[in-house]
Amino acid sequence: MPTLSSNETSSQGRTYSTNDTVDAVVIGTGAGGAPLLARLAQAGLRVVALEAGPEKNPKTDYATDERAQNFLFWNDERLSAGQDPLAFGSNNSGTGVGGSTLHFTAYTPRAQPDDLRLQTEFGVAADWPVDFNEDIVPYYNEIEQFLGVSGPASYPWGPARTQSYPLPPLPLNGAAQLMQRGCADLGIRTSPAANAALSGRYFQPGVGWREACTNRGFCQAGCSIGAKASMDVTYLALARAHGAEIRPDSFVTSFDRDTQGRITTVIYIRDGQTYRQPCKAVFLCAGAVETPRLLLLNGLANSSGQVGRNLMAHTGLQIWGEFDEDVRPYKGIPGGLISEDMHRPFSNKSADFAGGYLLQSIGVMPVTYVKQRVRGTGLWGQALHDAMSRYNHVAGINILGDCLPYDHNYLELSDEKDVRGLPKPRVYFTNGENEKQMNAHADRIMREIWAAAGAKNVWAFPRSAHVIGTCRMGHSPDDSVVDANGRSFDVPNLYISDNSTFPSALSVNPALTIMALSLRTADKFLQQAG
Ligand SMILES: Cc1cc2nc3c(=O)[nH]c(=O)nc-3n(C[C@H](O)[C@H](O)[C@H](O)COP(=O)(O)OP(=O)(O)OC[C@H]3O[C@@H](n4cnc5c(N)ncnc54)[C@H](O)[C@@H]3O)c2cc1C
Ligand code: SF4
Predict the structure, then answer these.
(1) Which end of the chain has fewer CB atoms < 10 Å from its terminal CB, N or C?
(2) Ligand that lies nearest to the alpha carbon of residue 89, given by its number in the listed order
């Protein structure tokens, strides 16, 4: 068995030996793993992060080429089943030191309090076991300041803010200006969106000064200048500055446990070799597909039978149109404008669906656009060529809406093996009546907006985004995998922090809330450890 030795003066920060028993191992370095890694390191704990993906230097290793940046996505095959099979790869999740934030679009809206209470409000899904004002808002405040979120001075929806965004909003790109025009015509309120990308230079603890966004519109292919607050240039840099070690290319496969059921060692593969890292606690932050997969592979933390169940994916219909104006959809921060007027679109209880959705303008790069054009409309040959010749005149709006958990949507291990000889995950997804009604409502609203803005050749791209909920948190081990602090009901030194713990999908983009729960889990762990 190969071993790694410790080193206190490595250029990559401190390193630990695989003969040391570290205080905690964090598996995965995305939105769920990175903030808590930093928090634990700041508290003086000896922490090692194991990350399946590579470590890249955005300044030297990123290309201004969508296809060359494909390494940012989790491209291992996942089997997709059900009547509305989910698209994986670039539609779903990332890999590398920074996880999916390396390619995320940087939208960081806050959830609203009623997002956490769908069961109370509508009698569906599950309420969250945490209090919005006490358990979430303080972390939103902290994270927005730390990341340098750019956002509006006043925001028309949700509770009054106790703290302003640290930076003013980024400029509206072509799609945002057109959506603003269409919404104004229809009386739908809009606002510049909150984005975790810098509208001005910003000092980042652990990093130094980060440069302002240059409006390259390349967020989904990675930000080469560090203006976007992906985890590599924010929480992971802070974690390293406080002594955390991050091991890239390290794929965790299994665990050793003691007679009390506590995890004693995390076992992982790096460069074809198997390593073992002894530890006192484990934070599993591998995302809503790999986290349940790893637990199912090891028969771990599943006395509730809920690992892999309650799978949700945001309802994410897009409506595209062509305009006489020169839109240049590749320019500017992709998500410039937002409306939450459809958060609860019905003024009485006779709603067509439970929950709600937000509307966002979308910029798009050419390879992404052509793939969606083919999948959404089936265009090919000359017709596709003609459509693409109008690329500079296209603009899109999408929704992000609640999705309910159903028995028929879940993740399981298949009989097919991946390159490591491990069973591939199979994910079942079929929209229920709630999602169909929400899509129909949103389809009508977005087409009206684009008609008011002067769009031609309008077309729809039905989609679902972000896998959520596969290890949900709750009050009881009967129906949940972890408690309100992210701690496993079954394995006392195992915590989960990622998209998988959400009890309901939220009608907003998830990353800010994942980070909030991540810091909260770290704080609860530190309090309990004394
Ligand atoms: C194109 C796109 C755009 C998006 N834009 C936005 C947006 O604008 N705003 C927003 O809020 N959300 C956005 N999202 C969603 C958001 O990025 C994710 O929901 C969020 O980052 C997920 O965080 P996570 O911690 O759950 O998982 P991840 O960030 O995916 O982190 C999981 C990490 O674990 C690693 N890992 C997995 N298995 C193992 C293993 N066995 N061993 C070791 N490491 C492992 C992975 O390599 C990965 O780095 C977007 C998603 C996509 C696909
Ligand atoms: S628009 Fe460009 S510079 Fe700005 S955050 Fe996105 S990738 Fe970075």
Answers:
(1) C
(2) 1
